[in-house]
Amino acid sequence: MNDLSSLFDFLPSSPSPAITAAHPLRWGAPTAAERGPVIASRDPALRNAIGAHAGGYGVYRALAIAAGDLPSNHRPDLTDTAPADLIGPHPQWSGDARIVSLDPWGHLIGEAYREELARGVDIRPTIAVTRAHIDMPEVRAAFDAGRIKADGDIVKPNGLVRVMKAAIDPVWYLPGVARRFDITETELRESLHAHTGGMYPELVSRPDLKVFLPPIGGSTIYCFGDPAKLGDRKFPLACRVHDECNGSDVFGSDICTCRPYLAHGVEMCIEMAQAGGVGLVVYNRKEGRALGEVTKFLVYNARKRDRNGDTPANYFTHTVGVAGVRDMRCQELMPDVLHWLGITHIDRFASMSDMKFNALRDAGITVGESVPLPEALIPADARVEIEAKLAAGYSGGETFHTDAPSTGRALGE
Predict the structure, then answer these.
(1) Is 285 tagged catalytic?
(2) What's the pTM?
């Protein structure tokens, strides 16, 4: 019998008490040993989590196995994969309310669960921490203009910037996620099951499994300066929380302010690190306000074909018309990564978003100064977006000068 033909043997029909007895999972316990490992094994006798590792990339793993390119029983060799910098533990890791959308112990699998791994238990990291250099044209321009100077540590003489970075896969503690959105766990499970085509039957058939590895994009953090300063109030923190925009971030599309704000946030983080503090950029995979890139491009077409022109007044009207909602980024979960890093206060926050400020406030994270995007950095075709957001409640409007509402380019221009 091959792997595909035996797949349905592992679909449970009712809760199994063996799960709790074999590898109990106590979310929010103060130590890794007390919490227990997150196990997404195919074997129902070992499994204590719903879903598969690597978010949406788990589908590619399944395809690689089906194509015969990857053995179904492959286990990662974690030799020399330990974090390049130590993160935590922090007080926010304890309890089941502060962190509900990632596994705070996910980068310490090889160390925290060494004995279980030696016994052959399939435990996989959900966070990886490494070191790298970044090279952005905007940072180069600031370097050439003298706003950023080489210090031999954070900024090299050739203009490269040293960072610690961490990749984070989502791990949802379902009771905590439900509380964050003021719904019941049953409502959350049923909605996730029904509106993903029934992809994960365990959401409704296994109420004993409280952890879900959703097939969505994760986050990447970039730390500028000494990572040990993160969360230490003695050192000021500059931060940009950025939601993915492939068209702008990668290809420089001028219809939005995403890349300019990202670059501005990076420069601000470098300046803070060089002044003795620390900088942090959090990059979340939430393309098009989590509406998706296809929806975003459909909205672009509708905006650019509007007979009255692409104006701030109709900016959100077209989004709602196509997607049914303005935004699906669920910023309520955004502060979790900051809790993972031990952060309780942000001195300079590069954002104008009321939704982000509200999420931080509700999470108990204070903000000293909000830093709006300098008007000079707004692309001409992006003024429609920025003016619409200011009208909708974004902060920082006092820094902009508008004699009349802007009109964006038409589709063919």
Answers:
(1) no
(2) 0.92
